[in-house]
Amino acid sequence: GIDYEEYCGAYLLKHGFHDVIITPPTGDYGADIVAKDERGNLWVFQCKQYSSKLGNSCVQEVVAAKKHYGATKAGVMTNSKLTEKARELAFENEVILFECMD
Question: pTM for this one?
Answer without folding.
Answer: 0.93
